[in-house]
Amino acid sequence: MAGGSGARCRQVSRPGSPGSPGSEVRRASLTAPRAEACPASEGEGSRRAAQDRCSGAVPSAAWQHPFLNVFRHFRVDEWKRSSKEGDVAVVTDKVLKSSVYRIRGSVSASNYIQLPRTSTQSLGLTGRYLYVLFRPLPTKHFVIHLDVSTEDGQVIRVSFSNLFKKFKSSATWLQFPFVFETKTPRRGGDTWSRGDSLNEGLGRDDLAGVVPPSVRWTCLQLDLHDILMFYLSRRYGHLKSIRLCASLLVRNLYTSDLCFDPAVTVAEARRAKLSVNPVPREMAFPVPKGESWHDHYIHVRFPRDDSKVPEEPVEKNCSLPEAVFLGHVSRRLPHPVVSGKPLLSSRSPEGQIPSLPLPCQVPSAPRIPPEVSLTYKDPEVSSGGAARIRGQRPSAWNEVTDAHTVVSDRHVLADKPPGVPMALEAIRSCKLFLPDPVLRLRGVIGFGGHSTQWALWTKDGMAVVYPCHAVIIVLQIDTGQQRFFLGHTDKVSALALDGNDVLLASAQVQPPSMVRLWDFQTGGCLSIFRSPLHTICSLSFSRSGAFLCGVGKDRHGRTVVVAWSTDKVGLGGEVVVLAKVHTDFDIQAFRIALFDETRMASCGRGSVRLWRLRGGVLRSCAVDLGEYCPLELTDLAFAQTLDGHWRPLAGMLFVCSHSGHILEIDHRRMTVQHVRRLLPTRPSGVPLTEKQSFSMGSGIAISSLGVSTTTCAVGSEDGYLRLWPLDFSSVLLEAEHDGPVSSVSFSPDGLRVLSTTTSGHLGFLDMPSREYTVLARSHMAPVLALSTEQNRGQMATVSLDHTVRIWDLATLQQLYDFSSSDETPSAVAFHPTLPSFFCGFSSGAVRSFSLENSGVLVEHTRHRGAITSLVITPDGRFLFSSCSQGSLVQYNCAVARCCVLRVAANMVCQDGHPNPNTLAVSRDSCRLAFVGPSKCKVTVVESDSLNELLHVDVSTLHLASNHPDWAVAVCFSPGNSGHLLVSTSSNKVVVLDAVSGHTIQELSSVRSRACASLAISEDARLLLGATGRTITVWDYPTQASPSCQVYIGHSEPVHVVAFTPDQQQVLSVGDAIFLWDVLATPERDQSDPGTPPVHEAGSTVGQLEDLASGASGLPRQQVPLPSQASPPPLSIHDRPLEGGTFSTSDEEGPCEENHVSEVFLQGQAPTPPVLVEKEASGAGDGPREAAKGSQTLAVLPCHHSQTSEWSLQRAKAGLPTRPDSYKHFTARYKASTRVKSVSFPPVGREQLRLKAVVGYNGNGRANMVWRPNTGFFAYTCGRLVVVEDLHSGTQRHWCGHPQEISTLALSEDGQVLASASCCGNTAAHCQIRIWDVPKGLCRHLLSHHDTAVQALAFSPDDEFLVTLGDYADRTLALWSMTTYELLSSTRFPEPVHGVAFNPWDANELICVGTSAITFWLLQHHGTDTSFQVHREPVPEELGASELTSLCYGASPLLYCGSSSGQVCVWDTGTGHCFLAWEADDGEIGVLLCSGSRLLSGSNTRRLRLWAVGVVPELRRKGSSARSNSVFMERELTLDGAVVSASFDSGMDMGVVGTTAGTLWYINWTEGTSTRLISGHRSKVNEVVFSPSESHCATCGEDGSVRVWSLASMELVIQFQVLNQSCLCLAWTPPSCGRPEQQQVVAGYSDGTLRVFSISRTAMELKMHPHRTALTAIAFSTDGQTILSGDKDGLVAISRPCTGMTFRMLSDHRGAPISAIQSTNKEYGDLGVEGAELWLAASGDQRVSIWASDWLQDRCELLEWLSFPAPAISEAPGLPPPSLAAFCPWDKAILVCVGLGAHEEVVFYSLRQKQVVQKTPLPFFAMSLSLSPGSQLMVVGFAECMLRLLDCASGTTQDFEGHDDAVHLCRFTPSGKLLFTAAHNEILVWEVTGS
User: Fold this and answer.
1) Could you count the other beta carbons within 10 Å of the beta carbon of residue 1702?
2) 308 to each of 67, 304, 871, how far by Cα in Å?
3) How far apart are CA 165 and CA 176, in angstroms?
4) Strands (E), 72-170
5) Which of left, alpha, beta for 906 (phi over 0: left; psi -120 to 50: alpha)?
6) By CB neighbour count within 10 A (0-12 exposed, 13-18 middle, 19+ buried), where does 1380 fall?
7) I need a surface site. Which of 254, 859, 991, 1619 has the fewest CB within 10 A?
8) How confident is the model at residue 700 (pLDDT cuts 50, 70, 90)?
9) What's the whole-model pTM score?
């Protein structure tokens, strides 16, 4: 134990001289060219070139790109250009399943492999990285020597070995110890590099040694460039030689300029689109299926990029690690001597300090805004390192407001600000606490949680803002008062405060990172938005608060910089993304300039970049650092000026580095002006005149810096805060901390410097008084236990950070800090009468500490396991301790040096974790209760003799649990010692009679967590429980249904709750220490005038948790009852429309005659008052709070409201965030690109004709129309409009859209159809096509919207067409259907979800959107058209939901659906909502009304039919219609969210479309639903045909195998396998002609194949021949054998009759099998025997052809073809597959595509053994099929087109129709039909030329 203050200040006065700290380092230029890697395979020049390279010269390195296999290139197996000595042999390794070299021997120098053969030669390898794939032999030593040549020709010997004890170096050699650990390596995952905890053991002799027995294969990645640069300041030239010495196994060596990730393969990176360099296939280690690479191997990267200065001094004071570690180092330190003493005052100036040049102080008055409320989420547990005893200045803690929830009868509620009603749900008779709430949060002890670098000054400099886990705290430094910003659901990862204290921005850790914007003065949360970053590590505000910049990582680990516009947030606007940039540069710090808000700066490893935001684009430019490029830059700061004007100093940027350098950069000239290196105190013996070089000595590892007008503050990892003048001539002031400084910042007046440390300390240095003040201290890991002491008013806490801390309960300041490095304290207890306390440790020791001299009084080591609990009797006679091994020890603690009385083994539960409530003593000190001897038992014994009094089996208490209960915690009641409380695993608290064991009472926890800790007040009125992350408070004396309150705030599980000795406060510990005030006893009045208001970020605990989990609140289950009020009948013309008329016309868009009026909604109309009748049994304030008794209606009286003010403005730049509404269309992502022009065949000469489309686009919205009176039925599939005759099944296909169609609309007379497609690479604007329905021709093309069209609607007289853009376009356009001119265009400030014309008035239309409903009235003035507009806000009864759908009912009714599942009814005459009811649990996206029936469809897959005939009567008569009500007639559950619907006039039958891609025929009369159109929900992988062509079968990613009738294309059979993807399919060949033999075999992603019988519609066989996914499958020609290939390149031969796999072929191992095909062969043909030919093609451009006779078990390789890889750069996401097929008209010809470097079809003759023909293609092929009936071949491309090639005539024809890459083409066996597939679209073509 040690004591000390948080920081010590001292004067440092020494002259600035050359070599001293602050001296300037001469700047030199740095030129380090790096060659770019070529996207090709390993290049190995000719034999002559290789000989030249070994001769000593270093030629061009192009032949070494992208990597070089050293062993293969130098032919190590021949031993001509390499040499071996001693015991070197080639063996087969069982793990790698390949040959490796074994080097062993007792003397390493006598057993080795050396490259090249002689020392006079040179390898000449210039790759920056050397990869050594090796495994040291267990219990042995090994050595690796590398001779590396520098650019100037100097040869450096670099050695790695576990023989070395410590790092050594000279000018010509470096020796690095290779250290192994005995524990499991930490996952990063398992990539070990320097800096991970390597520095802990540098220079220690006990770390090196023999290789452990459990050593694994290791990929050692050496950065030769950095090794020479960092350790010797030399430039790497090339690798000259390598010597591998015993004892080890080595697989290979590789060099490359690319930094590979060995855990990621090429296939994984391509599939997941990772932005990393995957390891090449030949370098990869084999990994078993379903397991992680890191579970089997180790990756060691040396040195690492983010290196740290070693904690212990090493030779040459090098600031980088000098050892390579495999995992953590197991350190067994001597047993510490724990002692302690009271801490010194934090204000302790030392020495005389000269006066400092101080800037002028800017006075401002401090303000204390109110706090906000909190939310709740499980964050990860943080960990911290050990610390020593420290002290801090006592300061007052003022009370703050509370945040709690109230629970009664299992319903959780959150308290609200005064005047805001509480929302109760289904509350019956309940008794709430008096007062309510009973607890109020007073203070939080803690700092950090995720990071300790965020601490900000307020503008007045009187308060600091910092995070504590998920809580943001504002601390007044003069008074110590805290207020909180509560609302984050995970730990806060970044903070930013604007220069005016108006906006506070905060981000949280949980990806995708959420950002909150707060009103700093009022404490309100202004905006919550999801950032485009996966994690945010930094935020920076502009001075005005108009811009916010964030830096973080995306899902692939790439660095991203985002700029948001926040200037409209306080005015009700949204946060808009202005720019987003991905960068490959490392960014450690990012700041917005003080003098120009559009300029920023960033720094990181080797780079300083200056950024500028202009025109919505964020660009950056690198500053030339010259020779300082290798520096690891850590922080930056702009020079400050008081008035903010431009001055010469204001253009200066200061950047610090990990090596102690400070760079001064001129921001305007983008040049480095000065470079200085800060060094520690000059070593003795060094003369003042000696120059210090770039690498000489160990510089100060600077982690952060801040700059004022005259001073620079520097924080370093040695724990010092140093103040320098701006010329860095000498140190002005130093403040020493007890941990590395993580951040520093100047107060606005420049007089105080705020500093934080990684050990959890926050404080500031006051420059005028030279005093340091500690503001906050914190445990750096979860707190496990606490104990309070009454006499001195102290509290003790123990934590996983290895510390025991003593706090003053009056001031909540730390008094003592006991620490231990090798054991963790787990339990603590104060002695009730003596000045001492007891602490139990993980080692099993129990120690007694004195509070008077801070020393250890006595130590007992009777336990074998970790101490789990300590408890002392109230009279101070006995102490009891329990451990994880089940032992119970009794001590006599009546004297100062306690002694052991009894040791009882196997008494306490052995599987218990540290829990203070495992043991409990009664108030009279007579009884001891504990959980044991098993977790299901609770035992009560006498405290003095340990005689058993009671034994209770908790599992037999018959509690309401599905599983046996066990005890979690025990506690005696203080008021009645005969009551024993037991917390059980079933979330119950059971009150037992401590004498008889009978159950007296049961208390239920509202949380789904058991109470880990219990505490009862002395008056036995309040019972506390730690339930997960919440605190539950019960009204304990209430016997029947005791009410309770739940308090949230902790972000991690609460471990202990307790009352303070005076019973006036409650303590809860977990992630931090929370102090709560007990406001009053239950008898006091509930009002507390001293309680400030609470500003909530959420309403209820349920809502808060739903926000964290993504769920919505519970909907109401009934329709509300109407009230007595009746709305007055008002017409839309009766109310004034102020400012609602517009006739502005602008020319815009591609059409010059278009008139556009952009209208923005500015004001919000006052919300109309709402009267809701409440039931007697319920409580609430809106329709959603109605009780669940019967269906009721809520009639909302209409009142006049002032019309919103509108104004004409320009749209704000940037795309808005997609609203949380499924109603909006989003085009499916496509990696393909469509060609802009296709040469179609002449009309009438097409050889293909589109016959049928299989599938419906469930991604569209309202993309199906049906007219029962005419029978017209149309829907969309991709970019096709399909018009189908429901009687005959024939289809017509209307083509022409360039992109996916989003929506359709049919005119009232049924003669015109409008279809809209989104924009894309071939269309700058959305295309709207107007079709003539009878002729099937396109009349006209319209184009206006930019992104996508959300909805289309015709006016009832068909004179107008209105088009609505999606959330990004937000434009409403009105078109004339006579002239097709754009009459008007309006742009909304927020997304609009739907639009509809009034069916009785062609001049009225209505839009519904995010927060309002908008009424539009068309006014015609000659040829001009204008709108009269009125906007009504969404009623308060609908809550925060949005209106998402609408339809007109009987005049003047309008029905609107909401995102929360409610339907509200509006009177269009008055423009007010008068009725609302809960119609669904989710968002309603479709509404249809006809007569007295209303249809609703939602994203919950429900389709409901409502009887609404009473609604018009309710509008007129109000309460007189109470006997009637809205009720639901019918309900159907479909297979997906409802996106489109059309019904007849009686609403009896209709067609409904779902997101599952299904069109359903609905018959409400019969209550049936029948599939009309259906298809695969996801990608179709294969199409196969029956030999008779009566049926076909398809399989898809959705795991289904579907059998279709070819005549009607109707679905006949569907086989579904859940949670798997069906990747390949095959039908039995014609040889199996009988119906009962018709089978299909399907291959799945789990490696299984299943055989399905078509006749019996059942699965007949399931086999598992593969360990990975099947990618190709085929039957043999006789149908008796199945050939299957998987993604690893294995081919399995199986017999379905026996279910056995009798042969495995691994010739294609390493690449997925892309095609398998078999065909008949004449016996003896091609020179081999066998009745069958079959081929296998793999993704590495290889094809094998085999001749087989499976009945004879004969299989012979006939031909092996390898082709060069295609050079693809345009579409990296769609690599062309390698496909091959036998030519049907000449089976000795092999047809291949995707095999070769060019876009062509290759014809290979198996007889001639050569390529006989090549046919060029326009693009690389994605699919291939050859017609068996004629010499036709079809090829599909990623460019959404297919080409038909006539091989006889050589002609070609191109065809379009698909919306994505054509990845599948299949001719039927007769060749009359062609099936093509793109994603889930299947097109059936008729071959007309066959």
Assistant:
1) 13
2) 30, 9, 44
3) 9
4) 83-85, 87-93, 98-104, 112-115, 129-136, 143-150, 155-161, 168-169
5) left
6) middle
7) 1619
8) confident
9) 0.46
